[in-house]
Design brief:
Order of helices and strands: EEEEHEEEEEEEH
Number of strands: 11
Number of helices: 2
Helix content: under 10%
Shape: globular
Structural class: mainly beta
Distance between the termini: 36 Å
Radius of gyration: 16 Å
Oligomer: single chain
Strand content: 35-45%
Amino acid sequence: MSITVKVDVRKTKIPGCFELQLAKFQDQRGCFVKTFHREVFLRHQLEAEFAEEYYSVSATGVLRGMHVQLPPHDQVKIVHCAAGEVMDVVVDLRTGSPTYGAFEVFRLSAERANMVYMAKGLAHGFYVIDGPAMVMYKATTVHAPEADQGIRWNSLNIPWPDPNPVVSERDRQFPPFHEFVSPFIYEGV
């Protein structure tokens, strides 16, 4: 038996960044959420071909980000939180974009059954509000370590809940936003 899924797609101020509200089916056993349905994505003119899927598990107080894959390995990405709760952030790194340097903040959780869709050239990061948090990712290109880059998490006025989160050494070494030389060019969405 196939379940018909309705996905509400909410535009954000950043072109190519959307919050998707998924249908959540709940009964006495628990819940069921379909996170991806190719035809639904195509109907909303969203990318529907993904090269890999992965997840991270992080404790409360951990901040991961702000990550991006450089061209030619840049990627469309969708993320959702399957357990716990995170403050998810997307930053526009595309030169020429009307929202270049702007960010959007989302609260993602299994309870909310929501996800974030990001076009190429958008950096992504999150802070764990309630852990452990399992964040699931789908990406249109395979991760390429040589193209792995980012901007420093605290180089914009993002309202992170904690001024001293647990951050990896790699993420601490990213350049601040004002020093990041962006290879991404806004081409309209």
